Amino acid sequence: MRLNPRTFNGKMSDGDIRLLRVFCAVVRCGGFAAAESELQLGLPSISRYIKDLETRLGVRLCRRGRVGFSLTDQGCQVYSSSLQLIADLERFEANIRSIHSDLTGTLNIGIIDTLISDPNLPIPGILKTYKKRHPFVEYNITTTTSNIIEQAVLDGNLHAGLVIGRRHINQLEYRFLYEENCNMYCSEEHPLFDKPTIEMEDISKCDFAGYSFLDDYDRFRSDGSLVKTASVDSMEAVATLVSTGCFLGTLPDHYVQSLWRLKKFRVIMPEVFGFSTDIELITRSGAPSPHVSALLDHLDSLQAKSRPLPRGTASATRLSTVGYETGAE
User: Fold this and answer.
1) Do 208 and 141 sit in the same domain of this protein?
2) CATH classification at residue 243
3) 85 and 139, same structural domain?
4) Each residue's pLDDT tens digit, 286-324
5) Which residues contact 53 (CB under 8 A, 6 or more apart)?
6) Which residues form the domain of 92?
7) In the chain, what are the helix, strand and coil shares in percent, each to the nearest 5?
8) Strands 106-111 and 138-143: what pairing?
9) Global pTM?
């Protein structure tokens, strides 16, 4: 198909926006066939929509065939611009709705796993107040990794997210909430559990379960002492591997304390492997949507009543190298 670069006149119609929505769904799903379920359309219809959009814009958007689905350089630009346009339209619609009635629609939030066991977590209180003030808003909460949450907020698929404080992206706004204390652990079946004194040489002989999205070597400055033989994307996965007695792994202290099944976990060399992580709330830069504005207002009001602990202040007593004896009181 030969494309005419002069086809697009710079003006968008309702039909064009529909084509862009189909295109975004195809990219998000990773291909035509994968998008059938979400779009409730057959392959011939999806293919026709994409061809119509390419003709309309005068550019080749994607490659498809035996080698799989991929975007062209122009397709990447169109996808990025489409996400921005759709997000702006949704923000406009929400703003207009808020003029005439109570806030409605869906609040989409991404949260990293296991935070609910941290007593410093302010989100339950924020959502409680939010629900009382905006009873017609629905909730969509996703639990996944920090990098996926960041990308989803950038793309406009999430209004906000709770992430581990690492890098800061220019297109995102970051709000420090509190510090989460973490340590390295082993279970009672691990060879190090009953060892009176543990040295770095002992650590180097053990298998380590590390997060696929973090560089544990830089974090611990361990000079290569950690032998990472398992990669995971959640803290529950770390806890599962540590429970086998075959792996060491880092976990939040509050998470270990909250679960009676983990009461026979031991902290390993906290003076070396103990660390604190910032927990931050992220939103996209720019004028916030009504949903985000309301969320941030509630956060401000709650933090004004109970200020979060400053960086460098332990939110819980640092744990010693003994097994927890927590559980039902």
Assistant:
1) no
2) 3.40.190.290
3) no
4) 878 888 888 888 777 766 665 544 454 443 333 333 333
5) 16, 19, 20, 22, 23, 61
6) 14-97
7) 40, 20, 35
8) parallel
9) 0.62
DSSP-derived letter for residue 205 is: T
Q: Residue 98: which pLDDT band, with cuts at 50, 70 and 90?
A: low
Assess whether 56 and 203 both reside in one domain.
no
pLDDT band at 326 (very low <50, low <70, confident <90, very high): very low
Pair 49, 130 in one domain? no
From residue 147, alpha-carbon distances to 144, 161, 173, 320 in Å are 9, 10, 15, 31
Q: How far is CA 256 from the centre of its chain?
A: 21
DSSP 83: H
Structure confidence at residue 322 (pLDDT): 34
Cβ–Cβ contacts within 10 Å for residue 302, how many? 17
Res. 139: pLDDT tops 80: yes
Same domain, 281 and 164: yes
